[in-house]
Amino acid sequence: MNINLINDIDAKKSTIWLVNSSADAEKLDIDTIPSDVYALHLSAKTPVVVNAPNKVTAVVQILTLDGNKNAENLRVIGHSIANQINSNQLDSVQIVAENAGHAVDISEGIILGLYKFDKYISDSKPNTLEAINICCSNLSDTDLAELKIVCEGVYSTRDLVNEPQSYLTATQLSEEIAILSKDAGFRLEVFNKKKIEALKMGGLLAVNKGSIEPPTFNIMEHKPDNAVNVKPYVLVGKGVVYDTGGLSLKPTGKSMDFMKSDMAGSAAVIGTMYAVAKNNLPLWVIALVPATDNRPSGAAYAPGDVITMFNGKTVEVLNTDAEGRLILADALTYAIKYDPELVIDMATLTGSAARTVGTQAIVSMGNASHEVHSELKKSGFAVHERLAELPFFDEYWDMLKSDIADLTNLGAPEGGAITAGKFLEYFTKNEKGDNSYPYLHLDIAGPAFLHSADKYRTIGGSGIGVRLLYHFLKSRC
Question: Is the pTM of this model over 0.90?
Answer without folding.
Answer: yes
